[in-house]
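[worker-b] picked up task from shared queue
[worker-b] task type: protein-ligand structure
[worker-b] ligand name resolved to PBG; SMILES cross-checked against name lookup, match
[worker-b] sequence length check passed
[worker-b] input payload:
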Amino acid sequence: MTEKALRLGTRRSKLAMAQSGQVAEAVSQVTGRPVELVEITTYGDVSREHLAQIGGTGVFVTALRDALLRGEVDFAVHSLKDLPTTQPEALALAAVPPREDPRDVIVARDALKLTDLPRGARVGTGSPRRMAQLNAFARGHGLDIETVPVRGNVDTRIGYVRTGEFDAVVLAAAGLHRIGRIDEVTDFLSVDTVLPAPGQGALAIECAADNADLIAVLGELDDPFTRAAVTAERSLLAALEAGCSAPVGALADLLADGQIVKEMRLRGVVGTTDGTRMVQLSTTGPVPETHDRAVALGRELAAEMLAQGAAGLMGERAQ
Ligand SMILES: NCc1[nH]cc(CCC(=O)O)c1CC(=O)O
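[worker-b] inference finished, payload out:
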């Protein structure tokens, strides 16, 4: 007997198709049901404006969520870092699968590393978070780089390096991994240099909150540690009252003693895009066993960062 296919709503971009395809396969394995991809065009895909100019969060996410709410698709896969920090009541975050490499990377001409970039090198990134941290690193290491806003999908961005328009572009390792272009990375940036965006490298699988059966099967793809980590990171972001285009980096990871996981560490950074002023802090606590404890970890760190003047560094917009 053939069961009806589950409909997975996805953006058309290469990255979205790649990650939806990978999740589709995993879902059809756990459910034993075929999964059909339903393409949905989002405002973020068609707009020529810089993301920061569109303003607000979640431009890639809204159209997928609308399709879910209208019942046109059964579930959707988002890059977790693109999700607004408030969860709509009618939708459930059914699974957060194990996280891919959270680091940012550089794809540069001539196999250059960040510290090899010559004076005046043009580095493409439209992200205030990346600008702030790269400019701060450059100051501290006698580098002279210019961060230049860039828009477009991963192929377009790497294309600017191949044509010589930029010396390098900054991208997320996870995205390149998923589309099979990780070999083009010339430098994996340590998270001590550039703290990734909250949720970077993780996916979110979302469905209607009242679809208990689907939530239960999708839940088999959930990784509790990744979920706890991204919950803490996004709670930090929310408590700083910053949006996805704010200069905020955050990363939670597990501290282990041999095989035994001991604690969770949460690191956060906020800075001005020119890298002159930064607030960077970390906190460590028991691995959160509940959603509320993960949220509390993020809030605690946010409170400490705000006490050190973080709010005053976030007013800037990207060009
Ligand atoms: N800003 C867009 C975006 N959203 C998710 C990813 C891929 C990485 C991920 O899933 O975290 C990217 C591309 C990038 O930042 O290089």
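[worker-b] attaching auto-annotations
[worker-b] Residues 50-57 have pLDDT under 50 and may be disordered.
[worker-b] releasing lock
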